[in-house]
Amino acid sequence: xxxxxxxxxxxxxxxxxxxxxxxxxxxxxxxxxxxxxxxxxxxxxxxxxxxxxxxxxxxxxxxxxxxxxxxxxxxxxxxxxxxxxxxxxxxxxxxxxxxxxxxxxxxxxxxxxxxxxxxxxxxxxxxxxxxxxxxxxxxxxxxxxxxxxxxxxxxxxxxxxxxxxxxxxxxxxxxxxxxxxxxxxxxxxxxxxxxxxxxxxxxxxxxxxxxxxxxxxxxxxxxxxxxxxxxxxxxxxxxxxxxxxxxxxxxxxxxxxxxxxxxxxxxxxxxxxxxxxxxxxxxxxxxxxxxxxxxxxxxxxxxxxxxxxxxxxxxxxxxxxxxxxxxxxxxxxxxxxxxxxxxxxxxxxxxxxxxxxxxxxxxxxxxxxxxxxxxxxxxxxxxxxxxxxxxxxxxxxxxxxxxxxxxxxxxxxxxxxxxxxxxxxxxxxxxxxxxxxxxxxxxxxxxxxxxxxxxxxxxxxxxxxxxxxxxxxxxxxxxxxxxxxxxxxxxxxxxxxxxxxxxxxxxxxxxxxxxxxxxxxxxxxxxxxxxxxxxxxxxxxx
Length: 542
Hints:
Structural class: alpha+beta
Helix content: 40-55%
Number of domains: 1
Number of strands: 14
Distance between the termini: 46 Å
CATH architecture: 2-Layer Sandwich
Radius of gyration: 23 Å
Number of helices: 19
Mean pLDDT: 93
C-alpha cells in the first residue's frame, strides 16, 4: 500500500510539473438519470410515455428504460459542471411541463407497485429496432422479475481529454501504441474503481429503506420500520445490496466479466451472449408469435450485464457495444453505483460531481494489478457490507487478505485524493478540493451521510419511507415547474421531439425484413467481425 501511494504522489507531481491542469480542463462529464413516473398518490403511472416528449426510441436526451414509466434523462458530455446541472435541470423542467399531475419519483427505490405482472414494458413502436428493445425488456422481466427493474439510478459518465492520456503516457515512459496504452490505463482505472467502489454508496447512498411491497413474496432479514417500510439500521444503499438486480443475475448464472484487459472484457461478454443457459432455456425464446427474450443464453445482449462500472464506446445505430469497443476502443467510463439523491431536485449536486471526477483521476493514477478470484470475492463482499451496514460502528472490510476498518480505509483514500483534487483545481483550492474535504465529515460522523439523514428525518417526522419520499417528490415537482427553461434549449428540445417522431416513423416504414431476420442479422455482427479479424491477422502473419 505504501508503495502504491508513493507511485500516486510521484505521478501527481509529474503531471502538475508538466502543466496537466490545462489539459484536465478538457475532461468531459455526462449524466444519465432515471426516474419513475408516478401518480399524484405515489403509485406507478400506467400511462404511455408522453407523446409531446418525442419518441423514446430516437430522442437523444429523453427516453425510457425498462418500463414505459421509467424515464431516463441524458445530458450531452460537457466540461462545465454548471452547464451539466443546467442542462439536467432544464430537462426535468421540460418533462414536467408535459406530465400533467404526474410526478417524477425522487428516490432510487420505487414508489408503490401493485404487482410485477402489471408493470408496463417500455413501448418503442413497431419497427424492428423497437420490437427488439421491448423483447429484451420482456426477457429481463422473465429472468429477474419486473419489480427489480424499476430501481432507478444515476450513471456518471466520464472521459479524459486526449491530451491528458497522451501526457500520462509520456510521464509513464510508455512507448506502446497510444490506443493500446489508453485501453490498458482505463481498464486499470476501472479495476481500481471496483476496489474502492464501496466508498460511493457509503458517502452518497440514499436508499437505506424500501417500501415493503418491493420484496413481497421474498424472504429477507430486513427489519420492519412500520407496517409499510423495511430497512437496515446502518444501511447506506439497499439498491446496491443483495436485494438488487446484480446479485440475482450472478446467482442465476455465475456470470462474471473479466477486467484484465479490454480484450478479456469483450471476450467474456461475447462468451456470455453466445453460451446457452439451461435456466433461461426453460423460459423459451419465441413462444407462439411473441419473443419472451432475445435468446436463451447467459446474456441476451451486453447491456444485461450489471456492473458498478463499465468501459463504453459510442455506438452507431444498432451496433453491438462490444464491437464498438473492439473497433474504436474505450471512449468513456460509466460509473453506475450512485443512488439518486432525493434531497436534490435533479438527483445530484455540484459537490458530488466534483468528488466523482476526482475519484476517476485518482483511480487512473493508482497502480492497478489484475483482480484474482480472491480479490473479486472481497470486492463483492465489501460492496454488500457497505450497502447493508456501512454506518455500523467498527465495521471492517476485506483488503488484501486482511481486515481494515471502513473508516480507516476511507480516510486513507481521502488523504490520497487531496493532491489529485488540487491537480484538478490547478492548485487553486477549488471545487474538487472542497468536495474531498466535505466527504471527510461523513467519514468522521456517519450521521452526516444522506442515508443516516433519511432515517433520522423519517423518525423525527414519524413517517414511512413512502410518505417521506412522496413529500420530497412533491416539493421537487413544484421547484422544477417554477424553473425557467433556457429559451434556446427549450426550442432545441421542441425540435428534437418532432425530429425523433419523424425518425421513428421513417424506421417503421423503412423496415424491409421480418423481425426474425433482423434479429439474426444483429447477432451475426459478432461472427462477421471475428471473421474479418481472423482474415486481418492471417494477412499480417503471412
